[in-house]
Amino acid sequence: MFPAEAAMEVSVIGGYLGVGKTTLVNHILRNASERIAVLVNDFGDINIDKELIDASDDSTISLTNGCICCSLVDGFAAALEAVAAFRPPPSRLVIEASGVADPGAVAAYGHAPGLVLDAVIVVADAARLREQVTDPLVGQTVVSQLTAADVIVLNKSDLVDDLGTTREQVSELNPDALLIQASHSEVSLDLLFGREVRKAQRSNSHIGEFESRTHKSDHPLSRNALETLINELPKNIQRVKGIVRLTESPQVPMVFQLVGRKWELRALADRSNSPEGNQLVAIGPKGSVPTDWDRTLRSEN
């Protein structure tokens, strides 16, 4: 369906009804700095500023910033075929799961040819979370969604007095997920998508300020050095992402990704345009990423 050279990163947005998923989708569409295709269940819920709409029909809304919003009314297969036909192809695909869906199951679409799963993002309502997880009717659904997450956006944090207790509850359910506090679903897209931070957020923003530092080296790394880096990584570094080559198989570029405390290492699907050497970016709150965060890796080069 998707040509290998047009491989797109896939982000799945899940969470129970009313937690702010659609607000997050709106935030992504308004602030995107890359061409993103978003799959949504209902156009009626997407409140896109009229000045951003370039063209629209029954199943697609094209925005002036290059992003595309597609309806899932005809199912995932039809929506993915529509996205595959876009030129130029989007660099990222964002899928909004329904409020009662298992986002982990939806994430299976991120393993289709030409697609690569980046992260499962689950939005939670900080003001109602404790009530929801103990509810005999919806508790199992909410807990299942949270445990499937790589990133948990603890939304409506401004409405909670005892936020520490809520954070502890989330951490008990999913201790390895990256936990981001938010109001009105306003989240740094650099942090959400694991991108290099090229400019600081405005100081009056609710999003917070983040920074990134990069590692670049030419020679293959040992697996032991990479695992040492993971184990010694400062806790404030919230995402690390990039391409590495290991001494055990230096001809194979590997995708490395750490989100919160979860990490994975897998062979790059499309090797035709892979960068030489090792390239990693680490992201965390402004002032929290040490200049020598990659010292374990630099000692090998």
Automatic annotation (TrEMBL):
Family annotation (SUPFAM superfamilies): Hypothetical protein YjiA, C-terminal domain, P-loop containing nucleoside triphosphate hydrolases
Molecular function (Gene Ontology), one example: nucleotide binding
CDD domains xrefs: CobW-like
Stretches of the chain forming a coiled coil according to its record: none
Annotated Pfam families: cobW (PF02492), CobW_C (PF07683)
Comp. bias intervals (Basic and acidic residues): 292-301
InterPro entries in the cross-refs: CobW-likC_sf, CobW-like_C, CobW/HypB/UreG_nucleotide-bd, P-loop_NTPase, Zinc-reg_GTPase_activator
Residue span(s) of domain CobW C-terminal: 210-297
Catalytic activity of the protein: GTP + H2O = GDP + phosphate + H(+)
Protein keywords: Chaperone, Hydrolase, Nucleotide-binding
Region (Disordered): 274-301
Family, per entry: Belongs to the SIMIBI class G3E GTPase family. ZNG1 subfamily.
Name of this chain's protein: CobW C-terminal domain-containing protein
Species this protein is from: marine metagenome
